[in-house]
Structure formats: C-alpha cells, structure tokens
Design brief:
alpha/beta, eight-stranded mixed beta sheet, 12 helices
Length: about 325
C-alpha cells in the first residue's frame, strides 16, 4: 500500500478515535467516583451496622423498629461467623428453638441490624432468624460489593452453618433489592443445599445494568459512556459481567418456589420488567403487587398485606 494512502488512513483513524479517547479520559474519573461511592467500601467506617441514612425519615423509622426488634430478642441472639472466599463474614442468629430458619438479606449499604425490620412475620410462623453482614458491610470483611452475585456462595456457607451447628432442616431466604438478587442466584446455584425451601424477593430487578439506567434517567444524568465504564470497573474488580450475570438469567434456573413482592411505584426496579421475570421462573411462584411504596420501603407502607403475603407463602412451604 502506498505510503501516502497509509498516512491518509492513519489520519482518518486518528480523527475518528481521538474524540472518543478524549471523552473516555474526561468521564472515567466520574465513573470511578460513582463506582467507589456505590459499590466499594474504601474506608473502615463505611456501611457499618448503624443507620446509613439518618436524613430519611421513613428509612430511619424502619431502622429504629429493626433495632428495637433486635434488642427485644437479644437474649435469644448470638453473634456468628463463617469463612468464605478468604473473608470472615459476620451475622446474628436468633434461636427460637425451631428447625426452620429465615435468612434475611437487605440491600446495598445496609448492615445486618436493618434486616430485623422484616423478621416479625417469620418469627410468628415459627422460624429462627439469621441476619448477615454481606461482604464489605457491617462487621464482615471485604472491599467490593459483589452485587449479590459473589454473595451467593457466601450464603451457601451460611446455610451449611445453620445445618451443622443449629440443626436447621428448612431455610427460607428473604431478600430485598441486591438481597433479592442474591436469593435468586442462590436458588439457581447447583451447589445450593437442599434445605433451601423457598425465596422471597422484594424489588427484584432485571439486571444491575437496568437499575443503573433507571437511576441515571431519574436523576437526568447522561448514560453513555459513564455506565459502560462503571460496568467495566465492576468486571475488572470482581469478575462480574453485569448483563450476563443477571437475575433475569438466574431466575430461569431456580429450583424452589418464589414469592415476588413488587411496588407499582418502584423507580429502580421498574414494574414493566417484573412480568417477564415472573414468567421466566420455572417453579411455583406468586406475585404480589403493592400500589404504593418506594424501592425497598414496601413493608412500612403496606405492613398488613406484606406480612400476610409472607405468612401465606411460608405456610405453603410447610
């Protein structure tokens, strides 16, 4: 190829690529900031067991109720730990003398105390309660959130602990937001213990990509290229491919009954994505819609209906 043709083609290529490189150079710091803010515990005091959002009145009411529940049953509760993936993971087990246990998984940025907010209907149904600090949260070790995907193997370790030390024969996992995604991955995992009898998923989303898209649009922020850069950072640090390793794929492989609880007002896990998730579930499933309630705040505004749905579900499980 003549040298002048090479020069022309090289110039055209540089002309096309240079703006894209410049954009990425400008936006990667933004993506890194968002990623570290949302999914990385980069200081020891981040995502502790304390109230993570004291400025939110509704959230604070939920946390205060959860904290009070934990104090009320403090005599029946002990701190417990497991090891997985090189991490020491912490939780609290409340023993009511049953051979059934409900594991409650809260969302991003929450330690285990907050999970007590969802414990009461399970206690009334005769379940012990295990709440856990997911990796990089509370008293557990870790730096990076695995957005529920890495945590599925942590949950297997927790269930093994329940079986071996607390003689648990039946487990229900109740997950909210990322906790719901984790419950879904767990129920689809071929290594999941057979003692898992069902999962409850509150605010399950199609994929974390779709959650980010919804939040970017709600906040009127441009999606490209920051979102793609965030997903690249997630993959670089955790190995997770956000679109592939997604609840919408895992739900097709679950092996236990599922209770879906969702709000028609959810702006993070969009209601229009829910029917496809439910339809893809191959096991017995129930979908309960709530007319009102923000993402992860359904029970506080729909307490009676929420608790009745949980009660009916666990009674069916036996």
């Amino acid at each position: 190829m003549p040298i002048f043709v090479c020069i022309i083609l090289g110039s055209l290529l540089a002309f096309c690529i240079a703006p894209a490189v410049w954009v990425l150079f400008r936006t990667m710091p933004i993506a890194r900031m968002v990623y570290h803010e949302q999914l990385v515990r980069d200081t020891p005091d981040k995502w502790r067991r304390e109230n993570s959002c004291p400025s939110d009145a509704e959230y604070s009411a939920m946390y205060a109720e959860a904290e009070q529940w934990g104090k009320h049953y403090e005599a029946e509760t002990k701190e417990v730990t497991v090891q997985n993936d090189g991490l020491r993971l912490c939780g609290r087990f409340t023993d009511f003398g049953s051979d059934k246990t409900a594991i409650i998984l809260c969302g991003r940025a929450e330690g285990c105390i907050y999970s007590y907010f969802y414990a009461e209907p399970y206690r009334k149904c005769g379940y012990n309660i295990l709440v856990v600090d997911q990796r990089a949260h509370g008293n557990s070790e870790g730096t990076y959130s695995g957005i529920g995907f890495l945590e599925q193997n942590d949950m297997i370790a927790w269930i093994r602990l329940l079986e071996q030390q607390f003689h648990t024969k039946a487990v229900v996992v109740h997950g909210v937001c990322i906790g719901a995604a984790c419950a879904t991955y767990l129920a689809a995992n071929r290594n999941c213990p057979k003692s898992l009898k069902g999962i409850v998923v509150d605010g399950l989303y199609r994929s974390f990509h779709h959650v980010f898209v919804a939040r970017f649009r709600t906040n009127k922020k441009p999606i490209f290229p920051v979102l793609w850069e965030i997903e690249w950072l997630i993959r670089a640090h955790t190995g997770i491919r956000v679109k592939r390793d997604a609840p919408c794929n895992a739900i097709k492989e679950v092996r236990v009954p599922v209770l879906f609880i969702h709000s028609k007002e959810d702006v993070s896990s969009l209601p229009e994505n829910v029917p496809a998730l439910v339809e893809s579930c191959p096991t017995p499933k129930t979908l309960v819609w709530m007319d009102h309630g923000a993402h992860s705040h359904l029970r506080i505004v729909n307490r009676d209906r929420y608790d009745q749905a949980v009660t009916d579900f666990v009674k069916i499980l036996g």
